[in-house]
Design goal:
113 residues, alpha+beta, binds glutathione, binds FE2/S2 (inorganic) cluster, Monothiol_GRX
Length: 113
């Protein structure tokens, strides 16, 4: 599969997904660590891709996203932002409702199946 198609599949199949360096439990960079911590604090499940394990995604996603760096938080197929944006949204209390609403929405859909 083309890398860009893999990315499209990941962001469509995972309503909340973080592209990061390392994993939430063992981040490999301070920026990724910060976003992982914020996401953990939001208290909902989220998917992640360790781009250090996937150099093709590391190379392609910035072009696809039109965003040069990692981490990247994607919600319902849309780029929300990187570390600065996510941290600011969290501090303002703007991120939590987005994450909760998305988690609730997909929880309901899964439960109904
Ligand atoms: N200001 C950025 C910080 C993130 C950043 O600068 N990331 C760099 C260093 S980890 C990056 O992803 N560089 C491209 C790469 O390593 O592929 C943000 O808000 O997310
Ligand atoms: S890996 Fe060096 S700043 Fe992220």
């Amino acid at each position: 599969m083309e890398t860009v198609d893999k990315i499209k599949q990941q962001i469509s199949e995972n309503p909340i997904i973080v592209y990061m360096k390392g994993s939430p439990k063992l981040p490999s960079c301070g920026f990724s660590s910060q976003v992982a911590q914020v996401m953990i604090n939001c208290g909902e499940q989220f998917a992640f891709v360790d781009i250090l394990q996937h150099p093709d995604i590391r190379a392609e996603l910035p072009k696809f996203a039109n965003w040069p760096t990692f981490p990247q938080l994607w919600v319902e197929g849309e780029l929300i932002g990187g570390c600065d944006i996510i941290t600011e949204m969290y501090q303002k209390g703007e991120l939590q409702p987005i994450i909760k609403e998305t988690a609730d929405k997909f929880r309901t859909e899964e439960d109904a199946e």
